[in-house]
Amino acid sequence: MHRVSEEPEYRICVRCIMDTSDPQIRFDANGVCEYCQNFETNIAPSWHTDERGARELQELSDKILAAGKGKEFDCIIGLSGGLDSSYATLVAVEKMKLRPLLFHVDAGWNTDQAVGNIEKLVDGLEMELHTEVINWREMKDLQLAFLKSQIADQDFPQDTAFFSALYKFARQNRIKYVITGGNYSTECCREPEEWGAYPGIDKTLIEDIHGKFGSRPLETFPIVDIMVYKILYQRVLGMQIVRPLNLVPYIKADAEKELSERFGWQKFQHKHHESRFTRFYEDYWMPRKFGYEKRRAHFSSLVMTGQMSREDALERIARPEMDEHFLEREFEYVANKLNIGIDDLQAIFEEPNKTYHDYKNKRWAIGIGAMVMQKLGLEKRLFR
Length: 384
Prior knowledge:
- By secondary structure, the chain is mainly α.
- It has a domain at 45-278 and 358-375: HUPs (Rossmann fold).
- Helices cover 49% and strands 6% of the residues.
- The chain has helices at 34-43, 51-67, 83-95, 112-125, 136-149, 156-172, 203-213, 226-236, 252-263, 276-290, 294-304, 310-317, 324-337, 342-350, 363-375, and strands at residues 75-78, 100-106, 128-133, 177-179, 240-242.
- Strands 3-2-1-4-5 form a 5-stranded parallel beta sheet, sandwiched between helices.
- The protein is globular and about 55 Å long.
- The model has no long low-confidence stretch (mean pLDDT 94).
C-alpha cells in the first residue's frame, strides 16, 4: 500500500535533483535550489583538497600525534564497514600516520558484507578492533517503539546507539580525538528534517516515545544527549571531532576501487547499505510510507561535486535500488527480527504518519545550537 502524498506544484532543481518532496525547499529565479546555492556560497570556497588541504592534514596529524604520545591509541574511529568510515580509516593510518583504535557498534543489523569489510580492513592494516554489542532486547524494544510512533526518523535508535557508544567509550578511555567519515564529497547535500534527519541525539524525544510505546526499561542502552555531548564532552572535556576526508581528494568511485584492490573490500549497492535495517528503512519504509527518497540527497551531493551527471541521477532515482521480490523478503525479515508478525508490521505501516512534533522534544534548543555553529562556520551544510 503506497501512501505518498501529492505535491500541488511539483518543482525540481535545474542543477541537482532535489525537489519539492522537501516541503521547505526554495529556488532562485533561475530554478536553482538552495542546496546548490549553499554549496557554491558556503562549502566550495573553503573546501580545499589540494596542497592547502595537505598542509592542514599534516598540521592536524602532528597535533593528534603529540597529544597521544605515550598512549596506546591517539584517536578512535567508528568503523561501520561502509565506504566513508573505511576510507577515513585508511587516510588516518597511511596519510596521517596515526594509531587509531577501530571501534564498531553491533546493533544487530549488520550485513555480512559489512562484517567482511571490517575484517578485511582490520587485518589488512593490522589494526586493533573493539566491538560494542548492544543489548538486542533493548535495541529491539526501542526500534519497535519508534516504528509505532509513526515518525519518519526511524534510524534514530541505531544512530543513538552508534554515536553514544562511541562517545562514551572515548570519554571513559580518555581518547580526545574522534575521527569520522563525515565529508562534503558525498554528503554536502544534507537531508532535510522532514526526511528523518533529526539533528542530534535528543534524550527527551527518545524517552517520550519509548515511554509511550516501549515495553522494557533501557537499562544498558547507550544514550548521550546532544547537549551533554556538545557541552560536557566537547567544551569541558575537550573531545574533538576530526573529518580528514574533507582535506584529501575523496572521489567515491576511486575510493571504492582502492579499497577493493588493496583489501578485497566490497562496495555496496548504495550509501548506508551496511545496515540491513537502514537499507530497508531508506529503500522501502521511507519512500512508500512517507514519500521521501534519501537517495535524492545522496545523488544530489554527487552531482554538486561532479561525480555524477544530473541525467544519471535522474535515471537512477526513477527506479528502486532493490527489486520488489527482494524488498518483500526484507519486509518479512524485519518483522521476524523484531519478533512481530508480518501482518503486525503491515498494520504499523498503514497507521497515519506523524512527526517528532507529536512528542516531547528539545528541537528548539538543538536549533539554537545549530544556528550558532553555522554563524561560527563550524557547520557549512544547509541545516534545517
